[in-house]
């Protein structure tokens, strides 16, 4: 969010990666699955393999959604920070270009939310 200050303004954001003890924030948004009303925010190690992140972090987080049972991460259409993205499951988050506060967006053709309602 931009700020229009009426005087010289300086502030250091509190959510700099340096304040996360070597970890980073990763946001994940699952399109057409508004049972989760906003993107998830996960704390993860930058050297965590992407496959482990999907299996150990993201998978359990979305397990409550009925569509998660049919989710195949290898068939997901990914975007990283609004750009098409092809994940390398063996590569780390950092080596995949997933930085602090990056946004991963997944689109799952054929999985359109509960009863196709995008929820």
Automatic annotation (TrEMBL):
Cross-referenced Pfam families: Phenol_monoox
One MF term in the entry's GO annotations: phenol 2-monooxygenase activity
Superkingdom of the organism of origin: Bacteria
Name of this protein: Phenol hydroxylase
Species, as recorded: Halopseudomonas phragmitis
């Amino acid at each position: 969010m931009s700020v229009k200050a009426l005087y010289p303004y300086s502030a250091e954001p509190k959510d700099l990666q340096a304040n996360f003890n070597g970890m980073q924030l990763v946001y994940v948004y699952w399109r057409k699955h508004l049972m989760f009303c906003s993107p998830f925010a996960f704390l993860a190690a930058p050297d965590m393999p992407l496959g482990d992140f999907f299996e150990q972090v993201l998978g359990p987080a979305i397990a409550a959604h009925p569509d998660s049972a049919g989710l195949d991460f290898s068939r997901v259409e990914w975007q990283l920070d609004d750009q098409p993205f092809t994940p390398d499951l063996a590569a780390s988050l950092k080596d995949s270009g997933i930085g602090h506060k990056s946004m991963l967006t997944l689109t799952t053709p054929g999985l359109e939310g509960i009863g196709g309602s995008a929820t």
